[in-house]
Specification:
By secondary structure, the chain is α/β, with parallel strands linked by helices. It is 38% helix and 21% strand. It has an eight-stranded mixed β-sheet, sandwiched between helices. Helix 8 packs antiparallel against helix 9. It is globular. It starts with a strand and ends in a 15-residue tail after the last helix.
């Protein structure tokens, strides 16, 4: 049976000047996990409005399970205005006090906490005490792999406090460079290298794995025992909105099947790179297309990774 990957937190519309797409980082992870062969489950809140109706239909069309999505009365379905710069990098303006800010602990969430193999969550949906309380209840109750993509929009003392309080409920942590820099300052670790900072986070919070995404350059992965750099795959970027979410979904899928660290890093980078070449946070693609990213370059160089000693992502 396919593994069950839950995206817990925000679901919303990504609104571009000329179109709108389903979005929200945890929901995106669920969709990408579905693309990669898992069952994707979206656990969030939408309004009792036409926008929410349309979002439910769109998510169903993407093949994810929507049974854990709540209809929240008197609160609108969330939106994010997205503007792309010349390099395809997005700039966001997120609506506030929306349905996903007011998640309740429901029988559907309790059931999902028992049946999920992994849950992806972040910081944005914890900005309101209602959803923060519900998300943390889920994380305390579940036996699933808990994957924290901090993914904050703007950093301040409250954001740092949320991250610090969430880390003890985390198994796998994913950061990008801006987030790592902000957290190094907040934790008083400004002088540490990337490698040392990841290692300290793993050791201090008992993480199984910490991952630092470097965008197009690749990523660092640390399980506290080994530290690996996995180079990226150059592509012509069209829209990088969902690259990190594809990266996290690929991380989850490969972690759950015990893939060696080097191979998993390449697969994660490929998933992010492929997503960057297409419009929207959750474009259509196949797992075969992910695996083919960079293969022509690899064949031309004659270099591979066969025979290298590797450690597994699964932490016994």
């Amino acid at each position: 049976m396919a593994v069950r990957v839950a995206g817990l937190g925000e679901v919303l519309w990504d609104v571009y000047p000329d179109a709108r797409y389903p979005g929200g980082a945890p929901a995106n992870v669920a969709v990408h996990a579905r693309r990669l062969g898992a069952e994707g489950v979206v656990a969030s809140g939408i309004g009792e409005d036409a926008s929410g109706d349309a979002l439910l239909d769109a998510l169903a069309g993407l093949g994810v399970n929507t049974e854990a999505i709540q209809r929240v009365p008197d609160k609108p379905t969330g939106t994010v205005s997205v503007r792309l710069d010349a390099d395809g990098h997005p700039h966001f303006d997120c609506s506030r006090d929306t349905a996903f800010d007011h998640l309740a602990w429901t029988p559907a969430l309790a059931s999902l906490s028992r049946t999920a193999d992994a849950v992806a969550f972040g910081t944005l949906a914890q900005r309101h005490p209602d959803s923060r309380r519900t998300i943390r209840t889920f994380l305390k109750e579940t036996k699933a792999l808990r994957v924290f993509d901090v993914n904050f929009r703007g950093f301040g003392p409250e954001t740092g406090k949320i991250v610090r309080e969430t880390l003890p409920l985390t198994d796998v942590l994913k950061l990008n460079e801006d987030e790592a820099e902000a957290l190094r300052g907040f934790f008083g670790k400004g002088g540490l290298s990337d490698e040392s900072f990841l290692k300290e986070l793993v050791q201090e919070y008992g993480l199984r794995l910490a991952v630092l995404s470097l965008g197009a350059r690749g990523c660092f992965l640390s399980d506290g025992r080994s530290h690996l750099f996995s180079p990226g795959f150059p592509v012509r970027a069209v829209d990088t909105t969902g690259c990190g979410d594809a990266f996290v979904a690929a991380l989850i899928v490969r972690y759950l099947d015990g893939t060696p660290l080097e191979e998993a890093g390449r697969f994660m980078n490929r998933a992010g790179a492929l997503t960057a070449t297409r419009r929207g946070a959750v474009p259509v693609y196949s797992i075969q297309e992910v695996e083919a990213v960079g293969e022509s370059t690899k064949r031309g160089s004659g270099k591979g990774s066969r025979g290298q000693k590797s450690s597994g992502l699964r932490n016994g």
